[in-house]
Amino acid sequence: MLEKIRKINLKTAVFMGICFYSLTMLLHVLIISGVIPFTWVNGGRSDAFTTQLPISIFNIIICIIGGVFTLVVAGNTLYKHKRGRTVICWFFVALWSFGFCQQLLGTPLEKLVGSLLLLLGVISNLRMAIEKR
Fold first, then answer.
1. Which is the most buried residue in 43, 56, 105, 113, by most CB within 10 A?
2. How far apart are CA 66 and CA 128, in angstroms?
3. pLDDT tens-digit profile of 76-92?
4. Rounded to an integer, what distance in angstroms lies between the CA atom of residue 131 and that of residue 2?
5. pLDDT tens across 35-91, in order?
6. Whole-model pTM?
7. Measured between alpha carbons, how far is 85 from 83 in angstroms, rounded to an integer?
């Protein structure tokens, strides 16, 4: 399976990662702005908008960090800190894989949209993690 993932061009994986982080941020901006009801996310467990707001803001911050990290990995042709980059990529693979499982147990929006977004994030970070530097 890793050989199939390795066949994905690294630039394509970076593009997939940027799309993942951008779309995830857009989703949370739509939740904060009220376009998407807060009851459609977080497994429907948020009682009020004030409960969902910090979760969405935290997720936007994580997406900004992940997007910047993805750009750094893409633009860094020097082979410094390769072990650190690989560890961070594997951390994101584990984080997004766990999130993917949670999305499959969530609301219909999470099952249809969230799970596909997280699968995109898992694949892109997995491809960057297994890069032979």
1. 56
2. 12
3. 655 566 788 889 999 99
4. 10
5. 999 899 988 888 899 999 999 999 999 999 999 999 888 776 555 667 888 899 999
6. 0.88
7. 5
99-132 burial, b for 16+ CB within 10 Å, e for fewer? Answer: bbeebeebbebbeebbbebbebbbbbbbbbbbee
Residue the block writes with tokens 């951008």: 22
Q: How far apart are CA 41 and CA 114, in angstroms?
A: 9
User: Which CA distances in Å does 35 have to 22, 31, 32, 38?
Assistant: 17, 6, 8, 9
Neighbours of 8 (CB within 10 A): 16
Structure tokens at 29: 């901006």
Structure tokens at 38: 């807060």
